Model the fold of this input.
Amino acid sequence: MKEKVNILGIPFIKTKREELTKLLIDKMDYQEKCFVVTANPEIVMHAQKDAEYQKTVLSADYIVPDGIGIIIASRIIRDYLPERVAGFDLMMDLLSEINKRKKKIFLLGAEVAVVKKAAQKISERFPQIQIVGYHHGYFQLDDLEIAQKVLHSDADLILVALGFPRQEMWISKYYQMFTKGVFIGVGGSFDVLAEKVKRAPVLWQKLNIEWLYRLIQQPSRWKRMIALPQFLIKIIWLKFKKNVRMRLNL
Ligand code: UDP
Done:
């Protein structure tokens, strides 16, 4: 069992991306199932407000820190997470590994043209991967047919790009139907694969300002991004209260 770091009630596993990739490949090799949430501060803040979503996130097998805000929070509380595990990078590492093993994937989410182009890009770049199906992400969550389509595809890896909270809700709703498959919510990753949205250049990623690049590209996200400062203020406030209590021996 991996060690965890609790951030506002969400237990993040202490792992590096490389180690996690190996772990997930093992799950596929043993035909086991696994639910991974790549959580950023927006997800943590949403879980604070929405009990059903919180329960869904907590039902995941692994919750990994996707966002520099989570890493900063772990430093503030002095329970260090080793590195950021961006959903897009995790997805690319997994695709590269499963290409060598000729495994099966299903892509669920994004617009019709986007998911189609993402599938095309994957088969060009990773020709050994078997794309056993794909479907756009604009359907009702209770559409059982979609889940059955995924089930019958017998995929080893199911990439769910419905954005949060929909993607985690979808996975948890149908997870019990499956006996195998690694399920990951990958947010806007198909948009990047299909070149609809550009990922921040490596320098921006290294400087930990990928969020700023995203904001410049999609200014309409500013409302959602308010969650980031709110999250950090909350972490600092809780830490301050804890320090005061310790000093006063309460
Ligand atoms: N999306 C979808 N169905 C929906 C809403 C969104 O498939 O009902 C897709 C959307 O087309 C995009 C992704 O989900 O590809 C959300 O991307 P975003 O960057 O907003 O991800 P988040 O930050 O929410 O993880």
Q: What stands out?
A: The first strand starts at residue 4 and ends at 7.
